[in-house]
Specification:
mainly beta, six-stranded mixed sheet, 104 residues, 35% strand
Length: 104
């Protein structure tokens, strides 16, 4: 399902275009990202309520999801859901885990 262009933002990371939006929830804030037109695999990353979500954090989440969590934004597939382990994320060393953990 494509992401609505209204209320979403565009970001370019390493030459590729993505669309992202922040959605509040009871568990924190959810950053939802899709590649290009958004008809392919989504990625959602949960962060704490008090985390400032700026383009730098979104770019770091995109890079980590691509490199370490198997997100393939240009192919169809099940949503990749991640959780940030840090209350104050370090953009140089962002710690994300697949959510829910495989041990559940």
């Amino acid at each position: 399902m494509a992401m609505a262009k209204k209320r979403s933002r565009v970001i370019t990371v390493d030459g590729e275009r993505y669309r992202w939006v922040v959605a509040p929830s009871d568990d924190g804030l959810r950053i939802v990202v899709v590649g290009g037109d958004g008809d392919e695999q989504r990625m959602a990353a949960w962060v704490e309520h008090d985390v400032v979500i700026a383009p730098g954090l979104v770019a770091a989440v995109i890079r980590r999801a691509l490199l370490h969590h198997g997100w393939t934004p240009w192919q169809r597939g099940k949503q990749v859901t991640l959780r940030c382990l840090d209350r104050v994320p370090d953009l140089a060393d962002l710690r994300l885990i697949t959510w829910p953990p495989a041990t559940w």
